[in-house]
Amino acid sequence: MEARDAARALGKPGGRGLKIKATAIASVAFVIFLFVVGIFGAGIGGKALADSCGGRGTPNVDYGDEDDAGPQEPGTGGIRAQQIANAKTIDKVAASEGLSGRATLIGLMTALQESTLLNLDHGHLDSVGLFQQRPSQGWGTAQQIQRPEYAAGMFFYGDDVHSSVGIHGLTDIKGWESMGLGQAAQAVQRSAYPTLYDGQEDAARQIAKEAGINLEREGKPGAPYENGGQEGDTGTGNEDQTDEPDTDAECYPEGAADRPGKPGEPFHDGDAPWPANVKNPRSTEEAIAWAKQEAETGGKDWYRACLAFVARAYGWNFSGVPYAIDHYREMPASMKHDKDRNPPPGALMYWETGGRAGHVAVYLGDGKIASNDILRPGYIDVVPATDIETKWGSTYVGWAPPYFPKGG
Predict the structure, then answer these.
(1) Which DSSP helix (H) or strand (E) runs through 361?
(2) Residues 70, 5: contact at Cβ < 8 Å?
(3) CB–CB of 171/225 below 8 Å?
(4) Which of 3, 15, 92, 190 could covalently link to 19 via disulfide, CB atoms 3.0 to 4.6 Å apart?
(5) CA distance 104 to 88
(6) Rounded to an integer, what distance in angstroms lies between the CA atom of residue 214 and that of residue 104?
(7) Helix (H/G/I), strand (E/B), else coil: 298
(8) What angle do CA 331, 334, 337 make, to 5 degrees?
């Protein structure tokens, strides 16, 4: 519940007088609490859950929007407990072979970027688990990879703790201890977005602190390849772990009518009516007006909550889908306009961010969107739609009508 929702609740009648008074007092106390958190939250919990992609405000994590009436506060509920449990498992696996706290930190940063430190049963292509490892590329079966101990072991040690043959882990990388943290993570993951791991360091350190993990722990003598990696590496490498991003020529072939425009080029207003089954509590005009008003007078309610915001713009309390990019993927094929840079005003626009969640914003027309976190973390601002590409380095996926079949 947001502070303004709590305030509205004070005026609702019902119950006996004493109950009303107790409820009112509790509600006032709750509003005061939310107000204090709003003022001091940046110092208390601003990085309590996974910070995502490096730059300030860059999206990665929507804090769940399946059954809540609004964006969740970072660092609360079962998700945080799962993250801490998984962090402890990663540290235990690292320490089991005498690896340093630095190894644990690299593992935490990697898992935060790949899965938000949650043991996912899905991902890009056949990727699953904490580190989004792929069965098709030799990392194990899906069932194995979804065991946190196994996934962490593969990340740190590869196929064999005492050999670099086969799938490489962190300790198979020569000089990993002296590399930059993100560089070491990338050496294992071979991600199409190599610069994003460094952005998780603060969040990883915060989780380690909450989990009681000593990141200053020194590696034990004799630990596998500690301080240097294996000489004379003969392993096969992880070249196929993740797909390389499409080249500009592949994504935007000449003359392709269904993929007009290239990254960074302006967006223009299209004129495509919504299908008959797109029905929302608010009309398109009302949603655009609400989004603009939120940008002008709204509060710090939308930190890492892009999907919750666009659902609220159209009058829903929640979208019914946990991640922005999943919302696009679950759209009927007839509603998805991949790469099309001519969205109608009121359309939902989607971007891949290199993290799990992706990003979504409301297109306002004239090349502008209403987006959270782009200028002020937690706030909505009206900005050029191209900012998501040029400022965040994200990849535009396409647009879709404001369709919320699971909204409520």
Answers:
(1) strand 359-365
(2) yes
(3) yes
(4) 15
(5) 9
(6) 9
(7) coil
(8) 80
Q: Residue-wise over 150-162: b if at least 16 C-beta within 10 A, else e?
A: bbbbbbbbbbebe
Q: Model pTM?
A: 0.49
Give the sign of the dihedral formed by CA 10, CA 13, CA 17, CA 22: negative
With a CB cutoff of 8 Å and minimum separation 6, the contacts of 167 are 137, 138, 139, 154, 158, 159, 235, 236, 238
Q: How far is CA 91 from CA 101, 165, 208, 224, in A?
A: 8, 24, 9, 15
What the block records as the tokens of 360 is 């979504």
Instruction: Give me 196's structure tokens.
Output: 């994003």
Contact in structure between 57 and 198 (CB atoms under 8 Å): no
Q: Which residues contact 254 (CB under 8 A, 6 or more apart)?
A: none
**Cα–Cα distance, 52 to 199 (Å, whole number):** 6
According to DSSP, residue 71 is labeled P
d(CA 309, CA 26): 27
- The string of DSSP letters for 8-35 reads HHTT---S-HHHHHHHHHHHHHHHHHHH
Question: CA–CA distance from 106 to each of 170, 249, 369, 370, 408 (Å)?
Answer: 9, 34, 35, 35, 39
- Type of residue at 118: L
**Count of CB atoms within 10 A of residue 192's CB?**
15
Helix (H, G, I), strand (E, B) or coil at 117: coil
Adjacent-strand bridge partners of 399 = 337, 349
Q: Give the pLDDT means over successive 10-residue stretches in the chain (408 positions).
A: 34 39 48 39 29 37 44 50 94 96 97 89 88 93 95 91 73 92 94 81 92 95 58 38 39 37 78 93 97 94 88 93 88 92 96 82 96 87 91 87 93
349: exposed, middle or buried (Cβ count in 10 Å: 0-12, 13-18, 19+) = buried
